[in-house]
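Let us work through a complete example step by step.
Step 1: write down the sequence.
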Amino acid sequence: MPYKLNIFSKILILLVLLLIPIVLLYSYTNRITNNVVQDQIQSSNLNQLSFFMHQLDADVERLAMSPVILGSDPYVREYIDKNDSPDYDMLKEQSRIIQKLSLQSVSSGWVNELTIAIPKGKQVLSSSIFVNGTDAWPWHRPIQRTWTYEVREGDKGVGSFIREVSEPIRAQVVDQTNVLYQVRFSVQNMVQLLDVYKKDKRSDPFLVDDGQALILNSSSDSSITTSIREQLTGSTLPLSGQIQIKIDKQQYLVSYVKSTQLNWYLVDYVPVQKILSPITMTRKLFYISIGFLLMMSVLASFILYRNVQIPIGKMIQSVQKVKRGDLSARIDYKAKNEFDFLIQRFNEMATQIQVLVEDVYAEKIRSREATLKQLQSQIHPHFLYNSLFFIINSAEMDDKESVVAMSQNLAEFYRYTTRVEKQVVQLQEEVNFVIHYLNIQQLRIHRLGYDIRIPDDMLNESVPRLILQPLVENAIIHGIERSMESDHITIKGEQVGEWNRVIVEDNGPGLDQEQLTQLSKQLEQPMSDDIGCGTWNIHHRLFYQFGEGSGLTLQLGEDGGMKAVLTWKREKQQETLPAAQERRP
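Step 2: predict the structure and record it as tokens.
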């Protein structure tokens, strides 16, 4: 049957078709302006990076003037000139100079160290207490006249930049100078600036030199920066520019500017998609607006859908459930219009149908009960003949004990089976009846043994009459008698939570999994000759009396035989159920 569009779908499709030309026109104009806006954003990123580098160079240049200022200080000059004078108070002047170095160091916006080294006398005066007066000063190294990056021993792997000014100016090695002025600043100053720039711009800047040394911000992605460094250092770069690099299938726009003071490159990268985010955001806003207009347009259609389409759909679903046999289907919906009358009438009709069907089902169950009573009231000829012949043979052999035992158990057996007026008994009565039956079978089959383990509290539970013996009989006929090696039946009871459970298990040859599955399915189907009246009635009588979850299940035994499990609710659980409640399996 071909699908037919309802009224709501038709109106919605019409509205969508009206909005399609607007969306296509916007997409065309957006594609044209995309490249122009992208170029402007890229140029803005490079300008911002250049401005940041200019600020960084200005700070470095101010630090570079510190050695020149120290060389012009009169106290420093006096200390150098009178260094070897015997009447000169060296300690006092050293303290004064160290104080001046400290004051000049903290006056800068960056954390730095100012040091004066005098090769003559091996004197070192510094603003850092860790360097001041040290004996480990490298006196035989070249003078670093330009900013040089190094990792000093004792700085825990944190690098720093140093620059030195000597007197005389032409000296090449430290110990050739009269005095050496050194300024040093840690890369942590630059890391802090990179962090500020990253926070403001939401990018990931870092510094790199020709020797592939890196200065990263505190939250940099090392894998991406390493890949960018490898690609940048492999080529000659101008003072500033931008290139696109592909890393892990993602395109990045890399901007770089060279420092005039440090000769390092300041590099920043952003995903190309992030650059286009303003355009993407504008496009999303447009589409959201279109979606909002569409929602407003379909509001009128939705009112029609809510007041007509939904009630009809609910009624169709419920009719389909009733058609599939689910008579408990009801329409739980308030339309607040004329459909309320139809929904109410439908629910009443479904309730009446369910009551009628369940009454018919209950009548069928009662008919099965009547059939069972008739079967119970009949004497089993084959079982009776075998028992009587056993009595005759025992009497001829003058085995009085066997005759008495068989007669007593047979009398108790038929006394119980012929009492049809009481259909609900205690489990204790069923167990006693089964014991009589097993004693009779044990006289006939000498190898037969049995074990009954049922808790005392469980023996007072109520069960339908003659619900246990048919399972024991099946275990003997289809299990014990089919194999000479089969000789034992176990009856075990247990209470788990709100459930009673009795398990009848034999060690006979049993069934394979396919046969067991087929037999279990037949329990849920109408009674047939394949499964027998007794087994089918056991399952459905339990289900009808104790409700959902109760019944008979068949399983493979632990010793290879069959296991029949009876399950029903405990009496204290049944008290909460209505007395006249009827259930359908």
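Step 3: interpret the result. Residues 258 and 265 are 4 Å apart (CA to CA).
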